[in-house]
Design goal:
21% of the residues are buried. The longest helix has 17 residues. The chain is built from 4 helices and 7 strands, in the order ααββββαβββα. The radius of gyration is 21 Å and the shape is elongated. Strands 1, 2, 3, 4, 5, 6 and 7 form a 7-stranded antiparallel beta sheet that branches. It has one domain. By secondary structure, it is an alpha+beta fold.
């Protein structure tokens, strides 16, 4: 067999042995858990909004989840990665829970909507993926507008990301 063909396999074996596991497969497991959580999310939900003091029906678009894993120059953190969740949502208020449940709410037809992109950044360190931070980006489509406005971004620390609940909590790894 040709040595040039064996070299990549040999290097991969050495690489996996040096890490004791497969970092890419481990990160894909984080992404898969995130995808399953968002696939289980209903397209609409009715809840009492404590900020507006009103029963509200929320509608969501199916989340688009992407990721990437890259080699780094670091010996301490030889790989970096991210998982990114794109989702749009809208909401309509009603007088009570029953009225909210009857509302026809859709992101596509609602006059206002919010588009969010949550990006969680990771580094592979000491044989495991570690959450190192991220960003939360949001843009709004206001009444009468056809397009979303320019997005605004906030940086998130691992501690802030740790406060995420619901589906987003499943996208931060262990």
């Amino acid at each position: 067999m040709n040595f040039a063909r064996l070299l990549p396999l040999l290097l991969l074996s050495i690489h996996q042995a040096s890490f004791g596991s497969d970092p890419l497969a481990e990160f894909k497991a984080i992404v898969d858990t995130c995808k399953v959580a968002f696939q289980a999310k209903p397209a609409t939900k009715v809840a009492f909004n404590s900020m507006t003091q009103a029963w509200t029906k929320y509608a969501f678009t199916p989340a688009e989840i992407s990721y990437d894993v890259r080699r780094s120059e670091s010996l301490v953190r030889p790989f970096t990665a991210f998982v990114e969740i794109l989702e749009s949502r809208t909401a309509e208020k009603a007088a009570d829970e029953a009225a909210a449940a009857q509302l026809e709410v859709s992101v596509e037809t609602a006059p206002t909507a919010q588009k969010t992109v949550v990006r969680n950044n990771f580094a592979y360190e000491n044989g495991r993926w570690v959450l190192i931070g991220g960003t939360y980006t949001s843009s709004m489509r206001m009444r009468g507008e056809k397009r979303f406005d320019a997005p605004t971004s906030l940086k998130n620390t691992p501690e802030e990301i740790g406060k995420h609940t619901g589906e987003l909590a499943e996208c931060r790894g262990k």
